[in-house]
Amino acid sequence: MQEITLNNKDLLIMNLVHYFVTEKNYNPIILHGIEDEVWLENMNGDYRVVRIVGHYIHNNEQLKYDKFKVKQIIKKLKVKTLSLSLNTLTIYTDLGDSVSLTKDKYSNSVYVNNMENINNNTLIEIFPDIVEKTNYKEEGIELFVKITEDMNKNNLEKSTKLGKIFQTRRPVITYTIMSLCILAFLMMYILGGGSENVATLIMFGANYKELVVNHHEYYRVFTCMFLHIGIAHLFANMYSLYILGPQVENFFGKWKYLFIYLISGICGSLLTLGFSNSVSAGASGAIFGLMGALLYFGYHYRVYLSNALVNQLLPVIFVNLGISLIIPSISLSAHVGGLVGGIISSMVVGVPEEKNNADRINGIITLTIYLGFIIYLGFFR
């Protein structure tokens, strides 16, 4: 058998990678053409990107080129992760004596050549628990085995978590909402004059400012999202709901999804009151809320969904908002109101597997302010 030998630098890099992956929830970034470097990301970390450099930097000119290269990579990562800034920490493990490290606005650099003297290093100021969490009893090949096993276990746990989030479930709530919309459409023909008859729409609960504001029929901001004006309107919204609904229901779960859908629809209805005196109906405000929910979810999981977010979801949102501007019969206010409501209500319920109470509290406060604002526009402006 061939004996495996590890030098001190290899063990140091493995130690650091193990700490950031298992203790600080960083994930590896795959970069092509980059050798002797490990790039890690955590969008919720103090440093969103941690870079561990194994190759030798022998002078300041080489360091200057290294920083230039990093800036170019960070620019690409900003686009991929939809980030305005990526605070970056570079950990050098092999520097020449003449090399001097400097800190700039968005990046920091430290030099660590072994774990034993880390107490005297600025890295412990950034991550105070790093000594405690890397104080292993094992040495040499035993430490290598332990680190490898721990990282494999961590990767398995993350894969299991992601598999749970992205697994396909039966979209019961989506199908229920679609059934209610179709049933309401049929009932308008059976019991009234059809879905395009104004009197029938009002009888079934369409949104109408005169009745909502002056006659206090507040239920209309809710019931109108299950009504549609004409078969084309129904088909377009049901098709959109059939495409978007199962995704949001899978990602957030049934009851959070229902909350997002209803709040988004109500927000669209309320904002419509502020800009229209006509009879209005439709699920489009709620459907735009689902787009907002996917946008919020995709932002939190943008490392995995960045291409879908940039290439698919954002263009769909912009195109649909553009159509709302061009065609007078389509309510832009309902779409905008629902879109914003969907983003904020997603913040309230939170994305799965991420327990961030601060974001949820901010979401509740923002939703309260937003509802107050659109109620003021609809009822008092």
Secondary structure: elements and pairs:
Blueprint: H1 8-22, E1 27-28, E2 37-41, E3 49-53, H2 60-81, E4 88-92, E5 107-111, H3 123-126, H4 130-133, H5 140-166, H6 172-191, H7 198-204, H8 209-214, H9 220-223, H10 231-252, H11 254-275, H12 284-300, H13 302-326, H14 332-349, H15 357-379
Parallel strand pairs: 3-4, 4-5
Antiparallel strand pairs: 1-2, 2-3
Helix pairs in contact: 1-5, 6-10, 10-11, 10-12, 11-12, 11-14, 11-15, 12-13, 12-14, 14-15
Feature tags:
mainly alpha; five-stranded mixed beta sheet; 15 helices
Descriptive overview:
With 381 residues, the protein is mainly alpha-helical. The chain is built from 15 helices and 5 strands. The radius of gyration is 27 Å and the shape is elongated. It starts with 7 loop residues before the first helix and ends with a helix. The mean pLDDT is 84.
Summarize the structure.
The chain has 381 residues and is mainly alpha-helical.
The arrangement of helices and strands along the chain is HEEEHEEHHHHHHHHHHHHH
Overall average pLDDT? 84
Name given to the CATH architecture of the largest domain: Up-down Bundle
Order of adjacent strands in the largest pleated sheet: 1-2-3-4-5
Instruction: Examine the coordinates and then state which fold CATH places here, giving the name of the CATH topology of the largest domain.
Output: Rhomboid-like fold
The amount of beta strand, in percent, is 5-15%
Please tell me the total number of domains: 2
The rough form would be described as elongated
Radius of gyration (Å): 27 Å
Please write the CATH class name of the largest domain. Mainly Alpha
